[in-house]
Amino acid sequence: MNGHEALAKAILNATDRVYTVPGYPITQVGVLTGAEMVVNEKTGLEYALGDSLSGRRAALVVKNVGVNACVDPLLQATAQGLVAGVLLVAGDDPEAVGSQTSQDTRIIGELAEIPVVEPDAGSCFKAVEAALRASEDFSRVAMLRVTPGFLEGEVTDTPVARVDGKGRLSDRSYTMHGRVTASRVLFRKMKEWSDASLLNTWGSEPAGAGPGMGPTRVVTAFPPPARAGEYRTIHEEGLPFISDHCRHKFLPEFEWRSQPQTLEERGYYRTFCRDCTFKHVISLMQEAGLRPVCDAGCVVLAMNPPYGIGVASYGMGSSIGVAARSTGVALTGDYAFMHSGINAFMDVYEKGLPLLCVILDNRCAAMTGKQPALPLERYIGWANPRTVSVSEKEEIKRLLETAERPGLIVIRGTCPEGQEHEIVAYRDM
């Protein structure tokens, strides 16, 4: 079988759901897997992260430039963690045969500090399963990079058993700095994983990666195995990514703390402004037993004490796509919704997914200086939103309990002037 067919079979064997945005050279892989088309790549990755929170392995199949649209939730997931494995299949086009660019997406894998695996003819099935296990072991998305040379060539590998692992969300007692520290402790273990991986095979010169020829095969592209540095020649598709990292040691070096910083160690946590008009909305959601995925912006504070109702947060405009495949409740602000959440909501609405989206509409970007936000009502009439004043507590409670799904509740209020998020001493919890 050719690479398209083998990769599709490997993905179907190892995952529970597959999403795609078609484009050269991975269109056929999406077709062969029966992947669900999504409105854009960012939404697809958010859906996959939602599946992960629900314990389902998921894959997103996109072309090289499609990876660009995934960068925000991709990087956020490294610090926030995940549960079941998530695989980002990136179809690179080094010769720009069917693309407007020949970018090498392994660089984005390095930026996101995620494992990058590039299979060859003898490792396709093993590589897909290994990438998903790495995603679970290191609690972050894994990238599988493929090129036309691999996809159009013959694959000799055969199916392997699926063995699910389990990742974890970052510890809620950590500060954001602590979450990043914890993720980088795992990054150090990724280097050990690459060095020990049986996907790589060692022999004589030269080494090859992907369809690159050579008796020695380098499959764990990032972090590259230390032993690859012993080879004078490494044939790669695209940039000399592995060669440069081995020879010049571009791997990131971090200052390591012995333990990630906790809220208790720092001594305080942040919450909403003292006179925030929306605080009782969070309390009503808490009373209703709702567990939202939170967006970037003020609503992310619903994850902090004294509420702690937010399950996860994967960046600007991400709550809708993630929640649609997990908790069924998204909490966002008007700015984040208009920034990129609206794309996911269009997809959710068209597919009739059981999602309740709650928008706190303060008409500004409160976390970045209260710059004016676009007026929601000009853009969302098609979704039949239920708009209510923040002062109408009983109506808000009723809507939270009875709103249709998919449904959109817009709660409108005004930020207090001259206030900032409150800092509360940890001992006062």
Task: Give a description of the structure.
35% of the residues lie in helices and 17% in strands. It has 429 residues and is α/β, with parallel strands linked by helices. The protein has two domains: 3-248, Rossmann fold (3-Layer(aba) Sandwich), CATH 3.40.50; 267-425, Thiamin diphosphate (ThDP)-binding fold, Pyr/PP domains (Rossmann fold, 3-Layer(aba) Sandwich). The strands form five sheets. Strands 2-1-3-4-6-5-9 form a seven-stranded mixed beta sheet, sandwiched between helices. A five-stranded parallel beta sheet has the order 12-13-14-18-17, with helices on both faces. The chain has a three-stranded parallel beta sheet with strand order 8-7-10, with no helix packed on it. Helix 15 (393-402) links the parallel strand 17 and strand 18 (407-412). Helix 3 (41-53) runs parallel beside helix 5 and helix 12 packs across helix 15. The mean pLDDT is 94.
Keywords for this entry:
7-stranded mixed sheet; Rossmann fold; 429 residues; 15 helices; alpha/beta; globular
